[in-house]
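Backbones bend. We report:
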Amino acid sequence: MIKESIGTGETIEIALENAYNELGIDSSTEGVNFEVIQQPEKKKLGLFGGKEAKVKVTLEIKESPAKVASDYLKSILDALGLTEIEMTVKEEEDGAEINLEGEGIGFVIGRRGETLNSLQYLTGLVANHVENNYYRISINTGNYREKREKTLEILGRKLAFKAVKTGETSRLEPMNPYERRIIHTAVQKVRGAISWSEGENMNRHVVIGPDPDAPKRNYDNRKRNNNYRGRRSGGYSKSGESTSTTPTREPINEGSLYGKL
C-alpha cells in the first residue's frame, strides 16, 4: 500500500518536514521516498514574485502476507454477502491459519470442502505474491479440517484392507494434493496394499489396490484344513476294535504336570 503527501515551505527542508508530519512519519521511517516538485525562489526586491518549495513524499507500507491474505478473503466473503462471518488469523513461522466462524459457514465449506479448498488456494496465491516467497495459508472453520482428515484416514485404511482381502482396486473421487497425501499415508500402514494417483489437474484421484510384490495368502489351504478339522483318523470294526492306524503314544513330560492339576 502506498501513501502520498505534498508539503510546501520556504525551503525544501521545511516542505519535507510538513509532508512528514501530514503522514505521521519522519525521515528515518522505512520505505520513504521524496521528490522535489518545485524549487524555492526568493521574492524580487523582497516584494514581488517568489515561490515556495514543494515536495512529494511517498510512503510504501509493506503489509505482512497474512494481512494481505485476510483482507483479500474478507473482500470475497463480503462480495458473497457473508458479512457476519468472524475471522481470526494465527501467524506462524512460514505461514498463517485463518479460522472462520459465524452464520453461513456451511456455504463457505461447500460440498466435501470444495469451496473452502478453492478459497484457500486463491488466498494462498495472493499471500505468496507479497514477498515472492512461499507462504502457507490454511483456512479452517471449527474443526472441519481435522474431521475431514480423520474421515479420509478411515476411508483409506478400509479400502486398503478390502484390496488385500479381495484383490480388487478402488478409485476415489478427485482430491487436492493435501487430501491425496492423507490417503496415501493411511494405505502405507496396511501391509499388502498400495496406492497411486491417476488423472490430470482437477481430475487427479487416488487408486488403491493390492501390492503385486506382497506375498499372497493361500485361502484355499485354510479352507482345506478346516474341512479336515474334527475328522477321526480311524473308525471301528463290527467287533468293536479300533481300525485307527495312528500309533498310541503317551505325552512326553506331561504326567507330572497333569498329576499336579
Q: What stands out?
A: Residues 144-166 form the longest helix (23 residues). The longest strand covers residues 2-9.
